[in-house]
Amino acid sequence: MIKTIKGHSNRVSSAAFTYGMLFTGSKDTKILGHDYRSSQSGSVKLIGHRGEVCGLKHDACGLASGSNDNLALVWDLSAGRIRHQLQGHKAAVKALAWCPWQRNLLATGGGTSDQTMRFWNI
């Protein structure tokens, strides 16, 4: 082990690496960004979900998060706020994927009560 990162008040259920940062999502509904090269923890805090953050995915288009609140959010990391709120799933959004060949296309997958994939032109 090279480092232990703290900051959430409940279990960590998702993680995504970006350029120099590790973002973690938790049952405490928060997303924390950690500069894993620094001795400080929790350098970025993103608040917007009302349920457990159970999916995170990052690419050049941004950080996308899915939650048990049935929402997917796309974050503006430079401002630390929500850029897009994606509604329509009827269950938790756990699966997220950015399209590798078409910029701004995000796929989200809903849970058992939803059983749908949705494609979003961000």
Strand order within the widest sheet? 1-2-3-4
- Classification by helices and strands: mainly beta
Proportion of residues in helical segments: under 10%
What's the average pLDDT? 92
The major pleated sheet works out as: 4 strands, antiparallel
CATH class: Mainly Beta
Low-confidence stretches: none
CATH topology: Methylamine Dehydrogenase, Chain H
Annotated CATH homologous superfamily: YVTN repeat-like/Quinoprotein amine dehydrogenase
Number of DSSP-assigned strands: 11
Tally of helical runs = 0
Percent of residues in β-strands: over 45%
Number of domains in the coordinates?
Answer: 1
CATH architecture: 7 Propeller
H and E string? EEEEEEEEEEE
Description:
The protein is an all-beta fold. The protein has one domain (12-121): YVTN repeat-like/Quinoprotein amine dehydrogenase (Methylamine Dehydrogenase, Chain H), CATH 2.130.10. Helices cover 0% and strands 52% of the residues. It has no helices and eleven strands. The protein has strands at residues 12-17, 21-26, 30-35, 44-47, 53-59, 62-67, 72-76, 81-86, 93-98, 105-110, 117-121. The strands form three sheets. The chain has a four-stranded antiparallel sheet, with no helix packed on it. The relative contact order is 0.16. The mean pLDDT is 92.
